[in-house]
Specification:
Layout lengths: L1 H19 L7 H32 L5 H37 L1
Helix pairs in contact: 1-2, 2-3
Length: 102
């Protein structure tokens, strides 16, 4: 939960600063790269730990329908977390390319 709220808040702040035109100085591309690599590390660590916990739900599937529903929800959360990690990583790569070209 910390990772998604952290990334949402800082991405929203960065977007507002970008819309206001406050990102014209030379320090912003470096900050953009740093933020997105930190976001990748946070999302990757939470994705791997959530996938590890989901493996334990698989072992207790014989206990009932509530465990199956929780298992399915955890699978979808793991998939979406890895997709978010991939998207942040791609944005970090594009940020590095933009930073090097400026």
């Amino acid at each position: 939960m910390f990772v998604s709220i952290f990334c949402f808040v800082f991405t929203t702040l960065y977007f507002i600063i970008y819309l206001a035109g406050g990102n014209q100085s030379s320090v912003w591309p470096g900050l953009d790269v740093a933020y997105h690599f930190i976001a990748v590390l946070f999302y990757l660590s939470s994705s791997v730990s959530l996938a590890y916990v989901t493996l334990f739900y698989k072992e207790s599937l014989n206990q009932g329908n509530d465990v199956l529903k929780s298992y399915q929800e955890n699978i979808s959360a793991v998939v979406m977390s890895f997709v978010a990690t991939l998207l942040y990583f791609l944005h970090a790569i594009f940020s590095v390319l933009r930073w090097k070209s400026s």
